[in-house]
Amino acid sequence: MDALDALERRIGELRAQVRRAVKARETVLARALRGELRRAEQAWDDALCASEPQDPAAAAGLSPVPAGAPGDPASMDGPGAGAPWVPASTGEPGAPGSAGGRGAGQGQWPGQGQGQGQGQGGGRVTALVPVRERVHQALGLLGVPASPRLVVAVHEAFFAGGLRGPQFTSLRRDEERSFRASPYARPYYLCAALTERLSAARGLLAVSTWPLERRIVGPLGPRVDFLTGAERVAEHLIRLTGTGERPVAAASRLLTRMARNIPGATAGTGDTAPADPAAVIRAARAELLVHLPADSGCRASAATRASRRLGDAERLFGAATLSDAARKGA
């Protein structure tokens, strides 16, 4: 427990240092401190799991409790009913556990085996992964702001466990409330993409750890982000194939749908055949070369204005618009 106490003190110190670095606009330092904070939190989780007594049922080699039965963590109040959660990977490409197919990067409760299969690597364990973590995994793969519909499609294609549109209804509002109550208490927040006017872009989710320029959506932003997302999906499919893992059909269908909106991405394969990931990457990059210079300038200009005019919360969740002010004054 002495080690846990020391880690808790270190985590508190790092959070305070991150907050000061962000307020001082020391971006490089803040990014390095966030990385150190994540490692400290992971070490705390590992130390906590190591100190937990072994589950007597698991030690006796008993089968896990069937899903939905009394005693199943999914049927209790709160995930795991007090069992320590082993966090999943961040979902960022290159992070541990993120290179696999469906189910890669998913966390689990200690002693919990696979139950009801949901695709490759699935199981009832995925039902306990928080919704925000599932959204973070999908956004991490895409690397750009995305609509709930695209997030659901990406998660279905590459990760175990499902997402549904209604689960997004209050997600960003809850994230904003959490941030305002305790800024930077979490390793990341699901936040909003920002328009050129620095207000929240309707229906687009982003990740707080991304550079501000990546979260800006200007006139060319939706097209650039679509092309970038298609390229990332294709690259992930190639990585899966390279590791000998067979991607699920949903992943191929997703890439094929995206390829139909990219000139030259389906050349030689037709509109009905599955898209070739390499062809999609080439076509997406070719069009990006046309749009990126203007789009990058727009994003950089808006990011400079946001850094100068907005506070911490507004840089993540957008400045209030006139309509927002009118509603609050009504």
Short description:
With 330 residues, the chain is mostly helical.
Describe this structure in words.
- With 330 residues, the chain is mainly alpha-helical.
- The protein has a domain at 1-37.
- Helix content is 51%, strand content 5%.
- The chain is built from twelve helices and three strands; from the N terminus they run H-H-H-H-H-H-E-E-H-E-H-H-H-H-H.
- It has helices at residues 2-23, 27-51, 56-59, 131-142, 148-158, 171-181, 212-215, 221-242, 249-259, 277-309, 312-317, 322-329; strands at 190-195, 200-207, 216-217.
- Strands 2-1-3 form a three-stranded mixed beta sheet.
- Helix 4 crosses helix 5 and helix 8 (221-242) crosses helix 10 (277-309).
- The longest helix is centred in the last third of the chain and has 33 residues, at 277-309.
- The radius of gyration is 21 Å and the shape is globular.
- The termini are far apart.
- Mean pLDDT is 75; it is low at 54-127 and 325-330.
Approximate shape? globular
Radius of gyration: 21 Å
In this structure, how is the largest beta sheet organized? 3 strands, mixed
Q: Would you list the SSEs in sequence order as H and E?
A: HHHHHHEEHEHHHHH
- The fraction of residues assigned to DSSP E strands is under 5%
Main structural class: mainly alpha
Number of helices: 12
- How far is the first residue's CA from the last residue's CA? 53 Å
Mean pLDDT: 75
Q: Percent helix among the residues?
A: 40-55%
For the biggest β-sheet, the strand order reads 2-1-3
> Which spans of ≥5 residues are poorly predicted at pLDDT below 50?
54-127, 325-330
